[in-house]
Backbone:
């Protein structure tokens, strides 16, 4: 039986190092380290701390690629071990997802009659967020050997190292130090002068280096030691690492020095044990177990592992970028992906993380206010792409599908993100009943977003309707469209929920409401306008048909038939299509109308769900990793189970099989979250009904045997197991739930079994 907790590669292919940097990334929410291969030149090193952004000479502010502390060279009898030159035997690199450890094992033939066996492991601590470490076991197989170990912190890293046209440097090395033991490099970012201190130290187990030397090599700092090993003798070397920044420390270098000293004193094994315990505790509560498909089981864990690695609940000023802490794609920026795709995973598994992510939006509210002001509006307009301060950071120019320069409009007119954030706040509140957050922080965001929409919506006097014109919806193939259904409907919903919230606060929390109204200068006139827009905003939902027009004029666009797919089952461009004219076709990038229906399924009939799924599914190119998971969930809802399972497999393999072609740039974090949503919302049939009851309508693919998962709802963990015959459900406290159409009163800790009638 395969190890379903291990993701591995068993052949060394140097070109794959770039993609594998993402797949073997380790992170703890505070920092992320790409899966750098120490023994190859072919690498795209990446070392990131959440919240450290800089612009300098780059087009826009971007997540800084910090000095790389992972450089480790091993010389045997004067010859450097180099996987790209040496003969490599029995290579394997694996990610132990249960314990959060990256491992490698191989034999290299440095020259004839000189073989060296190397085993390594690396972890980024979940116990002490400022620590990371490596262990190397090195054996000379054929004869006595003289080893030199060279540990380096490289201060010459840049952003966009994969693309020479976009290279940018974001820091300067300020100082290097000999810590005795270990070395330290202090760097400072160019714009905001954030200080980053990194320390590392190599130590032999059971033996001592014959010589251990410190070297200042300009933008590099080196610690080098040598040792003689007998034939067959294994040399074990530890590399301890620590990092601090001035974002969280008044003296980053002092704290970093203390941390590395404490880490060495604690020992490698002790830290690894605590780190593994935390990972195992996470899996005990958040694992999804699938019986019957080993590929699906392993891939789903892969996605959950990497998504959870991006989370950090200790700092409410950071969020999760579209590429996680796994690479520089999208410049490390935060999109709607976080709220609509990632947040549900955290709401229902780790609510404290969800709260921290929403607090990022509160802490960047002033930036959203500035965005609105600069665009001529009041209230708060959240940035399509956000960094550390909430200001709009979307590049003005990029490249189209023909690799030609193209104007990027999303930062100016893809405005639905403001209501996406409002939607996520209500989702969090419904699931957690966190009144402190809602009334102190969430309500202010909600009311400020309403003020923005008051200005952004336009009243059409002739038709007595409100319109929102010149926007981009979730489907980014179509720009400058009027009355996008997703946007308008969500705005209508935003106003409606804001008015409900106001009434609740008026009756139950008048002091808090009075504080916010005085601070925002809200009057009854404002509320009257909100209601008027909510009542009269144009919604492209016609009585004579169940199919909803994505935006005004969509039905008049040119039709193209998608007839072929690539090796990963992803649609290929229709023959005869001019890629520069996508705006004039019915082809869509990703779900738009379908996206809204998934967010608010209770607002649409089953007939409407099915009709729109069938209409838009055949016109979707899935040129976003966000797309397959959503069509999978909707496919299950409307009975297209065959395609639903196929979409699920595409989703969970997004990065593993690189079916978007850009995994080297970082994790598709929203797709990883979509994998969880597909398993829980799709297969598990999890939803919340109008009476705020947790509902479960599981569906199991014929070749699957069973699925088991849990969710946290209203401060209680609900465990669900189902196979083809029954659903077994338990709760930590008494609560009413709904299984299929049956309302059940769960008693604390007592299993309830529901038979499935096929």
Residues:
């Amino acid at each position: 039986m395969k190890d379903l907790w291990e993701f591995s590669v068993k052949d060394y292919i140097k070109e794959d190092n770039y993609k594998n940097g993402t797949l073997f990334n380790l992170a703890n929410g505070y920092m992320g380290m790409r899966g750098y291969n120490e023994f190859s030149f072919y690498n795209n090193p990446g070392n990131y701390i959440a919240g450290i952004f800089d612009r300098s000479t780059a087009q826009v502010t971007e997540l800084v690629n910090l000095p790389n502390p992972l450089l480790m060279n091993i010389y045997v009898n004067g010859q450097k071990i180099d996987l790209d030159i040496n003969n490599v035997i029995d290579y394997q690199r694996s990610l132990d997802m249960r314990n959060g450890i990256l491992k490698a094992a191989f034999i290299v033939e440095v020259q004839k009659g000189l073989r060296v066996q190397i085993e390594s492991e690396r972890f980024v601590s979940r116990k002490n967020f400022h620590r990371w470490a490596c262990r190397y076991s090195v054996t000379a197989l054929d004869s006595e050997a003289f080893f030199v170990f060279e540990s380096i912190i490289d201060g010459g890293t840049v952003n966009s190292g994969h693309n020479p046209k976009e290279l940018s440097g974001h820091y300067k090395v300020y100082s290097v130090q000999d810590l005795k033991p270990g070395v330290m490099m202090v760097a400072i970012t160019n714009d905001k002068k954030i200080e980053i201190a990194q320390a590392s130290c190599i130590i032999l187990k059971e033996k001592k280096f014959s010589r251990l030397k410190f070297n200042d090599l300009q933008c590099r700092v080196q610690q080098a030691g040598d040792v003689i090993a007998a034939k067959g003798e294994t040399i074990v070397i530890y590399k301890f690492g620590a990092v601090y920044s001035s974002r969280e420390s008044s003296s980053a270098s002092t704290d970093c020095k203390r941390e590395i000293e404490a880490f060495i004193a604690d020992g490698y094994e002790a830290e690894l044990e605590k780190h593994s315990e935390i990972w195992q505790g996470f899996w005990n509560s958040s694992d999804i177990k699938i019986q019957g498909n080993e590929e699906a089981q392993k891939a789903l864990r892969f996605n959950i592992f990497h998504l959870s690695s991006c989370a950090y609940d200790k700092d409410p000023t950071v969020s999760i970028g579209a590429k996680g802490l796994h690479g520089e794609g999208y410049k490390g920026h935060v999109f709607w992906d976080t709220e609509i795709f990632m947040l549900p995973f955290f709401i229902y598994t780790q609510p404290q993380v969800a709260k921290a992510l929403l607090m990022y939006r509160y802490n960047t509210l002033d930036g959203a206010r500035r965005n609105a002001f600069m665009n001529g509006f009041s209230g708060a307009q959240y940035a399509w792409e956000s960094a550390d301060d909430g200001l709009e950071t979307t590049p003005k120019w990029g490249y189209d599908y023909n690799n030609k320069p193209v104007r990027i409009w999303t930062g100016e007119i893809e405005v639905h993100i403001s209501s996406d954030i409002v939607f996520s706040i209500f989702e969090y509140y419904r699931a957690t009943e966190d009144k402190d957050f809602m009334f102190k922080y969430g309500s202010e965001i909600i009311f400020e977003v309403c003020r923005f929409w008051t200005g952004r919506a336009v009243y059409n006097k002739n038709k007595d309707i409100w319109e929102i014109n010149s926007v981009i919806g979730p489907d980014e193939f179509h720009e400058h469209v009027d009355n996008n259904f997703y946007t308008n409907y969500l705005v209508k919903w935003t106003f409606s929920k804001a008015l409900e919230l106001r009434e609740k606060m008026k009756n139950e929390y008048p002091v808090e409401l009075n504080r916010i109204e005085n601070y925002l200068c809200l009057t009854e006139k404002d509320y009257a306008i909100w209601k008027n827009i909510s009542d009269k905003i144009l919604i492209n939902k016609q009585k004579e048909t169940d199919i909803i027009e994505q935006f005004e004029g969509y039905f008049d666009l040119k039709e193209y038939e998608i007839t072929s797919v690539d090796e990963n089952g992803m649609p290929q461009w229709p023959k005869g299509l001019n890629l520069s004219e996508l705006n004039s076709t019915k082809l869509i990038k990703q779900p738009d109308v379908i996206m809204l229906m998934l967010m608010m399924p209770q607002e649409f009939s089953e007939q409407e769900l099915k009709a729109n799924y069938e209409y838009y599914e055949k016109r979707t190119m899935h040129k976003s990793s966000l797309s397959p998971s959503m069509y999978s969930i909707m496919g299950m809802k409307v009975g297209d189970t065959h395609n639903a399972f196929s979409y699920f497999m595409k989703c969970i393999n997004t990065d593993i099989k690189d079916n978007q072609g850009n995994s080297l740039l970082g994790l598709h974090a929203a797709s990883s979250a979509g994998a969880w949503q597909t398993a829980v919302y799709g297969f598990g049939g999890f939803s919340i009904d109008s009476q705020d009851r947790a509902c479960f309508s599981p569906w199991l693919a014929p070749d699957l045997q069973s699925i088991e998962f849990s969710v946290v709802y209203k401060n209680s963990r609900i465990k669900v197991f189902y196979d083809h015959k029954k659903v077994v459900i338990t709760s930590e406290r008494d609560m009413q739930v709904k299984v299929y159409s049956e309302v059940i009163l769960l008693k604390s800790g007592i299993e309830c079994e529901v038979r499935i009638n096929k």
